[in-house]
């Protein structure tokens, strides 16, 4: 275990060397990647050194800010509470690191007698000493052995795309994910979750290491090569502990045979593991959502688009789903996906969108597949978060979705909103955190759980969740600067973290970027309310309450994000006038 790990941009190597020598002269052991030997597995060695260091000195410059490697190393150090950042030139730090105490040695020339340097080294030495006392060198953890006598457990690694075309990634991912889904239907098998499996995508990890980390007994890996209508899929099942092959096969077929290939792989794995299928499980494995290979391929594309988090994808998703159901009117998953996209568009007030269509398509999905969790989740979203935000109307479908599949992301997200609406904030935290875990890029549950932690008065978790949400929104906005959903939650996270000036600046930009997005304006108003800017919040709310239904008004009445401005006369007048226009008694009970 070294005292110091130095993280830096390649163009700052000479500065990193100066720091390494100066810190070494003070008796601190330093690791930086000049210590790498030719032939070593760079990624693994660097990651191990980073995790074992007592302090991580990040040299911030315009080059390192732009480096995804440095940002990743800084993020890991920040989570481990080992981050010791140094600014070596004037630069704008990534937002997530602005709150971390950063030492500024902008014009330090390497002189160890410089008072600023001496103060920095003294602080760093104290920090290292504390880590030495509090966190002694741990013994290597014992291997996570698969329990003797337990049923087999399988990790399905994402199949490698061998097509020579990155655009085919959706297809290879879809094949491996559907095999994972098939195996999950076998009660005697334990299958590692999709998100855990995806975390190993693109990495080369020894089977024995996976066995230790996950405690799995077997690993399925494979590859997909597609050329036109021809598909070659290879798959092999490994014994994780011994890294020995249990079963392997190669399939050269046409695209029309894709379902048969998936069935054969799943059945071969079950046979190789000598697992006894319960009644009905064999039929469950071979049941397919569609018999049309063209519809299936388009659905894999839609599923990939829906997970990017991009609001711009929703019109395209609707069009693709319309084509899918033309090819196969009985494809319930496509109807559900179309409903979710339509609901998102209508909630944002996009011209031409229709909440009624969202409900109709969700009803079609439920009618076609009453046992499909995604269909009930789409129905809950469509009726519960439509123009009237009548979330109680979606409760029955939500309960059905969670009963059918507790790992359904859309159901967990809606359940969190329903709990917030009923002021059941601890319950909301559970659902939103489950949704966060199910989708490592999702911004909405990461943003909403901040509100739940705030309502519970958990200061530490509120700020931690705000920083996580901020990071997810930043990642989206780096690709799509006018993403309304990410903009709203970004501003709320900034406000929660006390970065008021940035929050106000982003509010001004957000209104320019997406001026007609009612949900965005509402979320921005909540952020300004948190900054006790009643005037700014009311300016935004004035354009919302005039256009929304009674469900929205009920939400405004109970939304704890607006509590800081509830006594403001203008806010009271806005809400009272809106209720008067609605024709309902303000004393009507909440939706839940």
Summarize the helices and strands and which ones pair or pack.
Layout: E1 4-7, H1 13-25, E2 30-31, H2 42-52, E3 55-60, H3 62-66, H4 68-79, E4 86-87, E5 103-104, H5 115-134, E6 153-156, E7 160-161, H6 169-184, E8 190-191, H7 194-198, H8 207-214, E9 218-227, E10 230-239, E11 244-254, H9 258-272, H10 281-286, H11 293-306, H12 313-327, H13 332-347, H14 355-368, H15 373-384, H16 395-404, H17 409-421, H18 425-438, H19 444-456, H20 459-479, H21 484-496, H22 500-513, H23 518-530, H24 534-545, H25 550-558, H26 569-582
Parallel strand pairs: 1-2, 1-3, 3-4, 4-5, 6-8, 6-9, 7-9
Antiparallel strand pairs: 9-10, 10-11
Helix pairs in contact: 6-9, 11-12, 11-13, 12-13, 13-14, 13-15, 14-15, 15-16, 16-17, 17-18, 17-19, 18-19, 19-20, 19-21, 20-21, 21-22, 21-23, 22-23, 23-24, 24-26, 25-26
């Amino acid at each position: 275990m070294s005292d110091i790990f130095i993280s830096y941009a390649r163009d700052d190597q000479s500065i990193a060397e100066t720091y390494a020598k100066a810190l070494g002269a003070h008796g601190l052991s330093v690791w930086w990647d000049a210590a790498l030997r030719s032939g070593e597995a760079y990624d693994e060695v660097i990651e191990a050194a980073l995790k074992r260091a007592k302090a991580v000195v990040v040299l911030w410059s315009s080059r390192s800010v732009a480096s995804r490697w440095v940002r990743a190393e800084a993020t890991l150090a920040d989570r481990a509470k080992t981050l010791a950042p140094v600014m070596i030139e004037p630069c704008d730090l990534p937002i997530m690191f602005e709150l971390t105490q950063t030492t500024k040695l902008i014009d330090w020339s390497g002189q160890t007698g410089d008072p600023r340097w001496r103060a920095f080294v003294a602080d760093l030495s104290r920090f290292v000493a504390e880590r030495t006392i509090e966190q002694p060198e741990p013994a290597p953890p014992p291997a996570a052995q698969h329990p003797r006598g337990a049923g087999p457990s399988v990790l399905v690694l994402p199949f490698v795309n061998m097509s020579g075309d990155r655009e085919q990634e959706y297809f290879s991912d879809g094949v491996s994910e559907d095999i994972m889904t098939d195996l999950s239907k076998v009660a005697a098998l334990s299958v590692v979750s999709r998100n855990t499996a995806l975390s190993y995508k693109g990495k080369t990890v020894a089977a024995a290491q996976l066995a230790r980390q996950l405690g799995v007994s077997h690993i399925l890996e494979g590859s997909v090569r597609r050329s036109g209508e021809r598909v070659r899929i290879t798959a092999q099942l490994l014994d994780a502990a011994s890294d020995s092959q249990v079963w392997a096969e190669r399939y050269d077929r046409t695209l029309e045979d894709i379902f048969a290939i998936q069935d054969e792989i799943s059945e071969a794995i079950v046979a190789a593991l000598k697992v006894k299928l319960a009644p009905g499980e064999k039929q469950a494995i071979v049941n397919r959502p569609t018999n049309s290979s063209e519809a299936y391929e388009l659905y894999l594309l839609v599923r990939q688009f829906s997970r990017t988090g991009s609001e711009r994808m929703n019109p395209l998703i609707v069009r693709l789903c319309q084509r899918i159901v033309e090819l196969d009117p009985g494809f319930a998953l496509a109807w559900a996906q179309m409903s979710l996209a339509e609901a998102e568009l209508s909630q944002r007030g996009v011209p031409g969108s229709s909440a009624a269509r969202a409900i109709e398509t969700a009803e079609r999905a439920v009618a076609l597949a009453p046992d499909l969790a995604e269909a009930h989740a789409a129905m809950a979203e469509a009726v519960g978060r439509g123009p009237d935000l009548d979330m109680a109307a979606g409760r029955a479908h939500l309960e059905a979705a969670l009963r059918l599949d507790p790992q359904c992301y859309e159901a967990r997200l809606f359940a969190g909103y329903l709990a917030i609406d009923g002021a059941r904030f601890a319950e909301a935290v559970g659902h939103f955190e489950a949704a966060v875990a199910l989708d490592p890029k999702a911004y909405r549950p990461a943003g909403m759980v901040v509100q739940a932690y705030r309502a519970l008065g958990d200061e530490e978790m509120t700020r931690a969740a705000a920083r996580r949400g901020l990071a997810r929104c930043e990642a989206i906005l780096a690709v799509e600067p006018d993403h309304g959903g990410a903009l709203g939650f970004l501003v709320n996270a900034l406000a929660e973290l006390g970065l008021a000036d940035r929050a106000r600046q982003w509010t001004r930009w957000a209104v320019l970027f997406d001026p007609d997005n009612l949900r965005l304006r509402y979320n921005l108003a909540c952020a300004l309310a948190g900054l006790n800017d009643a005037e700014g919040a009311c300016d935004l709310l004035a354009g919302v309450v005039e256009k929304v239904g009674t469900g929205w008004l009920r939400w405004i009445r109970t939304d704890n994000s607006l509590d800081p401005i509830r006594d403001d006369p203008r806010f009271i007048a806005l809400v009272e006038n809106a209720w008067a226009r609605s024709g309902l008694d303000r004393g009507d009970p909440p939706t839940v």
